[in-house]
Design goal:
Strand order of the largest sheet: 2-1-3-4-5
Shape: globular
Structural class: alpha/beta
Number of domains: 2
Radius of gyration: 21 Å
Number of helices: 12
Strand content: 5-15%
Largest sheet: 5 strands, parallel
Order of helices and strands: HHHHHHHHHEHEEHEEH
CATH superfamily of the largest domain: Glucose-6-phosphate isomerase like protein, domain 1
Number of strands: 5
Helix content: 55-70%
Mean pLDDT: 85
Low-confidence stretches: 1-5, 104-108
Length: about 290
């Protein structure tokens, strides 16, 4: 039996994306290029023909078919049905798609007026929030909350533009009277602070491209020690794909040098508040027993 038929074909978009992340590093380089395109452009995968995709990605049509075979599908048409089912479930085009379409038809030059810049960021942020709502499954939230609720210590890591998010998470966890430890790297003690971390603890890592080497290293090391790792990142094919117990991938609009933090901050707030509700419910059940 050939390698292409050894794995059962994923039946849902979420399962397919997860399988692509797991197999990505083992794929031939040409198929890795297709995989990166597939996770970043699911609408194109749903609506384009094999020849159109091949031309856009820069590969032969046969490579698209081999990519589908690698995930257990008889051909690309069968894989495409998974992407089309996602579109059907989502119904109307996303706000982000509508914004991009509007921009592509606009003939005017970009304005540098402060009010127009503000309007542009607001539009992008609304799009990001809509994408967050569509792309974060509720069961993934539940798994993350269960891990955090059961952890004795919670370590939080994020550097660069990810730092405000990690700082907010640490702030929220401390407000819940949990043992939260912010790994900020001050004084070079980042690795030292996780020496005693065990499988009874948890790590929340926040990292976007270009990924912080320190955060990736800490997450990899704690994963080896069976510490559950929860990741807020931007790409399911990033360096956390094989080590995260729960991964939240927040796509981004990359048209601006200053990329928005609205969606990841919203996710961080939702995790902290949901955790607070779970702990209150659990403590209430204990007191009533």
């Amino acid at each position: 039996m050939s390698r292409e038929t050894r794995v059962p074909a994923p039946k849902t978009f979420e399962d397919l994306t997860a399988q692509i992340a797991r197999q990505h590093d083992d794929l031939p380089s040409r198929l890795q290029i297709i995989a990166s395109f597939a996770v970043q452009h699911p609408n194109d995968m749903a609506l384009s023909t094999v020849s159109q995709l091949a031309k856009r990605i820069g590969v032969q049509p046969s490579a698209i078919v081999r990519f589908a075979n690698s995930f257990g599908y008889d051909g690309f048409t069968n894989m495409q049905q998974v992407y089309r089912a996602r579109l059907t479930a989502g119904a109307s085009p996303s706000y982000r798609d509508r914004i991009n379409a509007l921009r592509s038809t606009s003939s005017g030059a970009r304005s540098n007026k402060p009010a127009d810049i503000l309007a542009g960021f607001i539009s992008d942020d609304v799009a990001s929030l809509e994408g967050l709502f569509q792309n974060v499954p509720s069961d993934r939230m539940e798994r993350a909350i269960a891990i955090l609720a059961g952890a004795e210590n919670i370590y939080v890591a994020g550097q660069g533009r990810s730092f405000p998010i990690s700082y907010y998470i640490d702030y929220g966890l401390n407000r819940l009277d949990l043992k939260s430890h912010l790994l900020d790297g001050i004084g070079g003690f980042m690795r030292h602070r996780v020496r005693a971390a065990s499988k009874n603890d948890a790590l929340v890592a926040v990292s976007f491209k270009d990924y912080s080497p320190d955060v990736v290293e800490i997450a990899t090391e704690l994963s080896r020690r069976d510490v559950p790792v929860i990741v807020i990142t931007d790409n399911p094919l990033g360096p956390f794909a094989k080590i995260a117990k729960v991964s939240f991938e927040i796509g981004e609009l990359r048209t601006k040098p200053f990329r928005s933090l609205v969606a990841p901050i919203c996710l961080a707030q939702s995790l902290v508040v949901s955790l607070g509700h779970k702990l209150t419910s659990r403590n209430g059940a204990k007191n009533g027993a």
